[in-house]
Structures are given as structure tokens and as C-alpha cells.
Amino acid sequence: MTAAPIMSRDKKVGPQKRQDASKDGSTSPIGPVSALLYAFAAVCLLVLFPHQTRPWLYSGCAPLTLLILYGSATRAHAFQSTPPGTSPWSTLAFLNIVYLVTSTSRLQYHCFQVVCWPCIGVTILLLSPTAANVARRVFRKVLTRGHFVQDRIAAFNPPALHLDMGMQGLVVVRGWTFEMSSLTVVAHGVEVAFNITEKMHIALYCDEIVIRIFRGVNINPVHGVLKQEQFEIDLKNLKQPEIDEDGKEPLESTNYAFDDVDYCGPENIPPESDKKIGPGASRKATGPTADSRAQDRYDGILRRIQATSPVQQSIDEAGGAPSDDAEPLEHQKHRASTCERLENVLSVPHRPRRSIKISSIFDLIPTWLRRLFARTPFLLRLILMPVSYLHPTKIAVVAISASGSWLADLLKEKVYSKYSEDRDDIKQLEQSVTDWMIDATFCLDLADIQGLAQVSIRSSQDIVASCSCASGAVMRAEPKTGEVAPALRVEGGDATITLPSYLLPVHEHLLPPKPDSDSEEDTATIELSTHLSFPAILDSTMVDFVAELVDSAIVMQIEDVDGEDAQKSSTSGNALKRAQAKVAGQAQDVRDAIKKGMKKAAFSASNADQIAKLVRTIAQKLETMQGDVGYSGSMSVPLAGFHADGELPKKLLS
């Protein structure tokens, strides 16, 4: 490995080149001479003052410091891909300051050792190509299911995650990649399905999720479908894997039921595309032939996962994705068409043959670790605070569709079902409302979503989770005609949820005491605040739908008021039936019927048109209105499942 040449003094560097150099990912690099001097000084300290510097050496801080100096002097790739604004100087300062703080306690010192020495091994692999090649060859022989390409570790076809705590569902990740130089984890081909109610479940599809450790989470467009059926997890009837000539199960058919889709052999790998796949895909594989074959196989599997993705196949059926320069409305229409085609796709099309339950994962936690967290809830908050704050989530797009017939049935069940079926006026309004919904598919489209959760170390502070989106729309698609139009568009919105800290695990000691009487509710209060930003644009068909809905609400309100009046009259008649004749009661019924009929006739004759006109006027005002509208309220959560059975363990750090 050769050091970077020192620039000659007589060679002038222009201001533009200096500006470009300052924008480089690694600012203020340490030169080879400076690195040699600092390394020599560190070695002298270790030799001249062995007693004082021995803890520094044993902790791993001294070797890691020398490796950082060496990597910066040689311009290694691992130190050129650092985030903007950082430098080896800041890395060295941070490392040694952490050592000084942790050296004051024996427990902290050992924790620093546990973290530092593995970092030394990873740094050596990043700095030495020879060590990296040897490590890759060894790992390929030992871990036959893994892929080791350059500084990346990948695995495909892992078992599914069976959701069995709180809700029933299945999470499938077709593959994952970990890049050591950038500390980035990428999940490929994510498919999720879980039951919302006994008769409804949601299916979500995402091609890629990028987790930048301690920096954030970026999620590619998420497409989803609400389906009016229960999702059943059945992994027993899937096709058995085939056995190759060596007596081993091939990687491609080990887990998946659809071997023809997921087989990633050389003859089935799609041709290369210009689109980058995975982290560091632009770098070509160089070196031994084994590395080149591993690179080709890794890229081929990623291309196969992308080609067999339900989202990608639906996009191809819809005519391909629009260009990046297209209007946002075109992208929204295309996503609505994609979600419409996903309704005919299985909720989890690439189910593995093996799965692991969440409850089984929790059972693997050692007993001593359970007791430690149960007695020191502070440790859980100490872990959740940096994890939540340093991982803000950004979602490019969330598009979820639902069938209009299902929405019409839901509206009929929740709104119209409690009224008598022999009412022609309510039937007519119901029919006009459902006609607009039953033959269409509706898609909720939210773009540029950002979310952040904050968990405080102090138990007295609540948990705050916030979420915002740059734009939102409700798209209406007609499968028969293929027409897609926006029914409602808003500028954006945000929501904030505040949770009490005692809802966290192992925080039962902070729960309010159980009520003494059954009349009091054992609940916790969750605060919710939402805002919608104007202007809001409503389609003409959406305006007519809202007018019909308001018309129905007023007619049904008249029905409710008249029903209450009739009930009061009937009650009064029962109380005075000894003093009144039966003829007086019949006359009262006739008078009530005439009054109700005249009231509805007057409303139908004049107010129906006025309501439609009023709704159109409000819709026109919303298109030019600036500002936002919000709602703040609270909802109750039962605490029956949060109280611990028996006596609580004594808390050390609560």
C-alpha cells in the first residue's frame, strides 16, 4: 500500500479545487508525515510510561488510534467514506474522550474493551486487502449460506418472522446486506401482512429498507392493500425443497415455495440494468476469480429479487414508472394503478417454509438478563433513548388502497344498518352514495413522510412520537375504464402522539393503582394532535359525494329526533292511560306522522339543493385557503394487560 504523494510547492491549486477538497467526505486528512510523528509519539508513550499507559493499551484504544492514523495517512477507502464534516481528528478525539470517561469505572472499562477490540478487527479488514481476502475465503467455506463481497456481508432466504404477540401476521425479508465501511444494513424484498380485525388484514410491500446505524432509516416507497378477509399463516403445505447432486439443499429453493421465481442460477439471472442495486453497487469486483464470481452471484440474486418483486411486476403491468421530471399528480395516479393491481397478488407471495415466532425469540433471552432489566428499568430507557433519537425514519411514499365495495359495505353497516329498510328516502340516498363507491378503488397516497420518536431517560417524562408528510391525496380508480383521478388533495399534515412512560415494558411499578370499584375505569390516557395544511382540492365527484352524505346525515337526524319524540309521547301515554281514552293516543300518532312527513317533504323540496350549493361553495374556498386545521384530543387505553401478577421485584434504578 502506497502513501498519497505530497503536493509540490510550486504547483498552485485554484480556489475551485480547494473548495471541492473542502467538500470531500473526509475533511482535514492527516498527512503521512504527521501520522508517522503521532504514531511515533504514541509508541514512545507506551514504552517510556508502561505502567500509566498499560490500561490504554489493554482497552484497545491505543491500537485503534494507531490504525486510524495509518488509515488516514494512506487514504484508505474506509476513511474516505466518512460522513461530511467529520475527520480523523474528530474520530481520535471522540475515541480517547470516551476512553477517559470509561476508565474511571471498572464496569465501564470492561464494556469499552468489549466494544473496542471487535472494532480493531473490523478496521484491520478494512485497511488490509490481504486480510480481507483471507477472511472472505475462510467465511465462504465455513458459512456456505452467506455472501461475502468486498466489505459487505449478505444472506438470503432467512426464516420469516411470525407475529404472535398482540396481533397475528407474517414478516418476510427476502435478503439483507451489511456494509461494514458505512455501517449500513439493507433489507431487500420486504413483505408484511397482519390482521387488523377478524375479517380484515393489510398487506404491505417494500423493495428496500436502508438502515444507517446511528444516522437514520430510509424506506423506499411502500405499497399496501386492505383486504376484506382474514390472513392465515400456513407454512405446512409449501413445496419441499429439492436436493442437488451434492446432497445439499440449494439456496434458492431452501425456503421459498415458488422455486421457479426465486431460483437465482446463472441461466435465470436477468441482464444487468443501469439502476444501482444495494450499497456500493457501482464498485466493480476486482481481485481473485472467487471474488468476481461472488460479486456476480450477489448482483444476480439482487436483480432476481427486484425482477420478481410484486411492486415491480405491478409497475411493469401499469406501463412503467413515470419519469422523475413528471408532475406529482402523474406519480400519484401511477401509484394508485399499482396498488389496484396488487389487490390480485397474494398478501405474502414469497413465503418461506420456515418461520420463527416473536414469543420464541423472547424465550431465548437468558433469565439473568430478564432479571437485570426487570430490576433496572433505567437500562431499557438508556438503550431506547439513543436508538429512537438517532434513527429518524424517512419514507418516500406510502400508498394504501382499498376496494370501494368494501368501503360501501362498511358505510352501510356502520351508518345505514340501524334504520329501517322500508324507508324509501333513506334507501335512495344510500344508493346514490354507494354507487359512487362500489365500482371503484380508493388509494390513500402520502409522500415524504418523516417520523421521530423520543424516549427520555427520566421516567417522569412522556414518550413523544411525531410524524409529518409533505403532501397527501385520495385517488379514485375505476378498474373498468382504467381512469384514475384525485378525489381529494391536501398540502400536507402532521400528527403527534404522547404516551406515558409507564407503558414501556418492566415499568409496572409506575402504573396507577387499580380502581377500588368496578364503576371506575382502569385506563391510561394517550394524547393525540393532528393537523392538515391548506389548500385542499376536491374533485367534482367528491363534492357531489359529500353533498349526498350530508343530505343522508340530516335525514337520518330527523329520523332520530322524531323517534325520540314518539318514544316520549308513548311513555307519557302509558303513564296516563287510565285517565285518557284510546282514541286520544291514536290521534297523537296520526298527528306525529303528519308532522314528520311535512318536515321531510319540506326538507326534500328546498334544503337538498341548498346543501349541495353550500358544499360546492366550501370546496371552492378550500382551494384558495391558506393555513391549517387541527384536532387535539385524548383516547383511553385499558391497563388490564399491563399490571403484573404477584409481587413486583425491587427496583434498583427506576
Number of domains: 3
Report how far the terminal alpha carbons are from each other.
53 Å
User: What portion of residues belong to β-strands?
Assistant: 15-25%
Spans with pLDDT under 50 lasting ≥5 residues? 1-28, 81-85, 239-276, 282-287, 566-573
> How many individual helices?
19
How many β-strand runs? 15
Mean of all residue-level pLDDT scores: 76
**Silhouette:** globular
**Major sheet, described briefly?**
15 strands, mixed
Structural class: alpha+beta
Helix content: 40-55%
Radius of gyration over C-alpha positions, nearest whole angstrom = 33 Å
Oligomer: single chain
Region (Disordered): 1-28, 262-295, 309-336
Keywords: Membrane, Transmembrane, Transmembrane helix
Transmembrane segments: 30-49, 56-73, 85-102, 114-135
Biased composition (Basic and acidic residues): 8-23
Protein model, in words:
By secondary structure, this protein is α+β, with helices and mostly antiparallel strands. It has three domains: 23-127; 146-342, no CATH class; 366-536, no CATH class. Helices cover 43% and strands 23% of the residues. It is built from 19 helices and 15 strands. The protein has helices at 15-22, 32-48, 50-58, 61-73, 77-80, 88-102, 106-127, 129-142, 259-262, 289-307, 310-317, 328-342, 358-363, 367-375, 377-389, 404-416, 424-438, 540-575, 582-624, and strands at residues 146-149, 152-156, 160-163, 169-179, 184-197, 200-212, 216-219, 222-227, 355-357, 393-403, 441-454, 463-478, 483-499, 523-538, 627-638. It has a 15-stranded mixed beta sheet that branches. Strand 5 and strand 6 (200-212) form a beta hairpin. Helix 4 (61-73) packs parallel to helix 7 (106-127). The protein is globular and about 100 Å long. The chain crosses the membrane at residues 30-49, 56-73, 85-102, 114-135. Residues 8-23 have a biased composition (Basic and acidic residues). Keywords: Membrane, Transmembrane, Transmembrane helix. Residues 1-28, 262-295, 309-336 are annotated as: Disordered.
